[in-house]
Amino acid sequence: MPKLTIAIDGPAGSGKSSVARLVAQLLGYLYLDSGAMYRALALKALQESIAIEDQEQLVKLAKNTHIELQSPTAEQERSGAKNRVFLDGWEVTQAIRTAEVAQAASRLATVGPVREVLVAEQQRAGAGGGVVMEGRDIGTVVFPKAELKIFLEAAPQVRAERRWKEHQEKGDKIALAEVVIEVQERDLRDRERKVSPLVRAGDAVLVDNTAMDIEETARLVVMLARERDRELAKTLSEARGDA
Ligand code: DC
Fold first, then answer.
1. Where are the domains of the chain?
2. Order of strands across the sheet with 148-153?
3. Cα of 102 from ligand 1 centre, angstroms
4. pLDDT of 67-122, one tens digit each?
5. Which of 146, 155, 194, 219 could lock onto 210 through a cystine, CB 3.0 to 4.6 A?
6. Mutate which of 33, 115, 190, 192 to test ligand 1's pocket (most atoms within 8 Å of Cβ)?
7. Which residues on adjacent β-strands are paired with residue 87?
8. In this structure, which topology does domain 5-235 adopt according to CATH?
């Protein structure tokens, strides 16, 4: 039985990364964080002082940039990293996790031709199946034929609090009110942009985890994956005419 492609989309703070990573571990799948690619490219644009409004330069930059995602080391994992991120061979796992890079990534992600370059990379990275990829457009654009699509949601205040806690754990001095605004701004931009906005795919299962923790949410997704697996096996066996 070929392994599934699982797409997990949702807004900032919905728990996508933690849930997707845990689901991948439980199923023995590869975990890929597509947002890390937008963040890495945004970091490079900031480093090279390329204005996020300069679409032509951004597309050139995207085409000339190599971003690689790898599994984190045990120590990185303990400090909350879910994917190791390399930008042109340099590790940027930590450097991309700032509020400044998050905002720049969200703005850069509104540029259609930049998305095309990154989407092609994501499709290549997840081509073999047996993958849990998370982002904003995985079920709608990157893998529209994914066997299981999850749309994760949670109340905006809860999502902002989760993000704030992450900042606190890293020792970042940032007020909760500031994080609430950052999350609201990104939500609005990610949901309302013209190209590949954050929307629930018609065939995605909506999971609201406002009152659920990461483990509970991941267990639910794993149950849905096993159910999907059984359905696919049944369809396959019927098509072969097995008894
Ligand atoms: O998931 P994240 O918060 O690390 O993503 C950072 C930004 O990248 C997010 O605000 C929007 C953009 N993004 C996107 O447009 N499409 C994706 N598949 C993943 C992220």
1. 5-235
2. 30-33, 131-135, 5-9, 148-153, 205-208
3. 8
4. 999 999 999 888 888 899 999 999 999 999 988 999 999 999 999 999 999 999 99
5. 155
6. 190
7. 67, 90
8. Rossmann fold (3.40.50)
